[in-house]
Amino acid sequence: MNGNKEKLVIIGNGMAGISTVEQILKLSSRFDITVFGTEPYPNYNRIMLSYVLEGSKTIDDIVLNDLHWYEDYGITLHTGTTITRIESETREVVTAEGLRFPYDKVIIATGSSSFILPVPGHDKQGVVGFRDIADCNVMLEAAKQYKKAAVIGGGLLGLEAAKGLVQLGMEVTVVHLMQDLMERQLDPQASAMLKTELERQGIRFKMGAQTAELLGGERVEGIRFADDSVLNTDFVVMAVGIKPNTGVARESGLEVNRGIVVDDYMQTSLNNVYSVGECTEHRGVCYGLVAPLFEQGMILAKHICGVDTAPYEGSVVSTKLKISGVDVFSTGEFIDSPEHTIISHKDDWKRTYKKILLRDNIMVGAVLFGDITDSAELQKLIKQQAEMTDELYASLMGTGCGGHKKATSVETMAEDEIVCGCNGVTKGTIVDAITNEGLTSVDEIKACTGATRSCGGCKPVVEQILQYVLGDNFTAGAKQGICGCTSLNRDEIVAEIRQKGLQTTKEVMHVLGWNQPEGCSKCRPAINYYLGMIAPDTHVDEKESRFVNERMNANIQKDGTYTVVPRMYGGVTTPEDLKRIADISVKYDVKAVKVTGGQRLDLIGVKKEDLPKVWAELDMPSGYAYAKSLRTVKTCVGSQFCRFGTQDSMAMGALLERKFERLDLPAKFKYAVNGCPRNCAESCTKDIGIVGNDGGWEIFIGGNGGIKARLADSLCKVKTDEELVELCGAIMQHYRETANYLERTSEWVERMGLEQIRAVVVEDVKERKALMERIEFALEQVEDPWKKALRNEEGQNKLFHGIEVSARP
Fold it and tell me: Domain named FAD/NAD(P)-binding: which ranges (predicted)?
């Protein structure tokens, strides 16, 4: 340790403590900092645990400050180490093992833990909270062995846990004591809309249910409720609330109520000992949201560094969250009462809801569901106790009936208003970074400040701040390259490839002046795709520029085995193919055969060296479940079997799948074909959704059922099957030629605009036929990748036997 510096000890390696450290590092270099964390990980984003649970992110993806960060700033980090007490007489902290470390100042940031209901059976095996990575790992393991899960608690954590377990294949029931979900953040209307949306995603609910006992032997087998009804379950997640972790404070003699009591500068009752975050109680309040802990950390950092600062006077609580892909927001008062004047708008088609509450014409609260564009503006107005006017009403409610959505007003945002809730980044921090560091892109802002590096929900506001600060220089200055290796964007790269006749990724990077000669995992796959899209007849696909799943023609699992998905056109197969799949699954010890959401069979757990043999013996086409291409065409039974069916959806689904399979696309692509408007194949959430009616077909585009859920937009109606196929081909080729690499159609439609797409592929018949000709030409060049791999014995030996495969290009 540096003897010239004050010794600052941080007890807790979570978001509150390390956010405070980040602020301290910006203000002063006077401290020699040591951090103690109970978990065996560097600082990670607890908000993103649900993404790890559902499988869309890894633990590495949610790390906020990796080990190199601690080293770069000279911070000593002790992971897996618990501080049990602070001894003020000797000015030392003491670990659970009895080791002692000196301090001059201490910040307690121990956070909170899950509250476990003290009902009989709460200590049985199979009962867990949801608060950290260890809980997440227990849930991941449980999903491999058990089928039924119950989540007790209908708040944010409970709903996120439920969605993650559903994604892992479990049958999940959320048990909630109240009649409304998230009743502390949402009004009954928004709660009901959220419940409907989550039910659509596969979650079941038991509302108004009081848990009396957990049943079973050593392991939980069910829940008995106060009314003596029983829910059978194999696994229980407790998400009924949190309790501040105050153990070290109590052992050290600090004043503790529900949390560790602090003054307006986060000082505890012990001199030179501070507390911040969820373990802290300020003016009788313990906060469980991230924005207050960042506000506390900023004031504590200034105070501890000797910088003048206003005292912490508490936080105006607002909630802006994404629950299972659905955006919700509330601030101030949100439950109606007779003294309120209510302004509201509900759109069942777009699944949006907006409510503003007034008292004596003063704005006192708001709730948003589905579209939270106005969240920052409403939060500011309610904090200012703004009076409602005709102009303000028109501004806030004018978009509710189909008008064009306006941008958030960043000019009037306060400098200390938090823009990135995941990382505690304020508007002022972003403005200073742009001004002082000369930043000109969102990626640069992300690297410098951390804003947008987690969930990405704040990216639109960050872009608006960038535009506001750069002014007239925004257009030129804000232009971003496709990655950090180049300043060229997608359109410029494609134009240069066409103009200069470039043929390989290395040639592109060399001729166009990449600053990284080998490129990176972001640009190499993109260039490889653009080259193939431009010249499908001459381009030689570069396997080394693809991710592992595309190189191996199968999906890698976390244990190193692979999932094989054979093609089943339109979700239809034969008894002979089913028997072959079963026989091969037994022969090669396949761990599980799963029916997918796209009506296919996953053969999960195939060893790498067995992949070629499984492909050969299946003798079926690849289902392309691993590729940026057409994955599936989901169908209902249609007019062949359904008494409501008006069109032959199975035949059309199989035709479209056979027609457009194997073609590289900017991102994965899914179809659904319904034989009637009852929508059993869920066309509303597919890239192209097709709905049959008595007069023909209706085409929808841009749907997405993933993390960023989006309903598809109606593009047009056609009368004949031939028109339908031609329009589908034109849509796909227009998407291929204009989308950014990895840009889903849901984002593409919003960026391009539905009217522009309709003008090109529907109204301009000549251009539609030209697009169809180009996609037909590209389709002539493709072949089944499994058969191609089986012909290449040398490639098989290199790829499938004994060589570890990197996940990145």
Answer: 7-280
Q: What is the pLDDT of residues 394-406, one digit of tens each?
A: 888 874 333 344 4
779-782 contacts at long range (C-beta below 8 A, 24 or more positions apart): 779/659, 779/660, 779/662, 779/663, 780/537, 781/536, 781/537, 782/662, 782/663
How many Å is the Cα radius of gyration of the chain?
Answer: 28
DSSP 8-class letter at 486 = B
Q: How many CB atoms lie within 10 A of CB 24?
A: 22
Three-state DSSP state, 632: strand
Token look-up 């052992």 returns 251
Q: Dihedrals φ, ψ of 567, to 5°?
A: -70, 135
Q: What is the DSSP letter of 290?
A: H
Residue 566: strand pairing partners: 622
Residues 505, 526: Cα–Cα separation, whole Å: 9
- Please return the burial class of 636, using the count of CB atoms within 10 Å of its CB with bins 0-12, 13-18 and 19+: buried
How crowded is residue 22: how many other Cβ atoms within 10 Å of its Cβ? Answer: 23
**What gap in Å lies between CA 511 and CA 502, rounded to an integer?**
8
Instruction: Give the length of the chain.
Output: 809
Q: Residue holding tokens 């919003």?
A: 750
CB 624 within 8 A of CB 662: yes
CA 334/CA 185 separation, integer angstroms: 8
| Confidence check: pLDDT of 698 > 70 | yes
Residue range 5-50, pLDDT digits in tens:
999 999 999 999 999 999 999 899 999 999 999 999 999 988 888 8
Mean pLDDT of the 750-771 span: 91
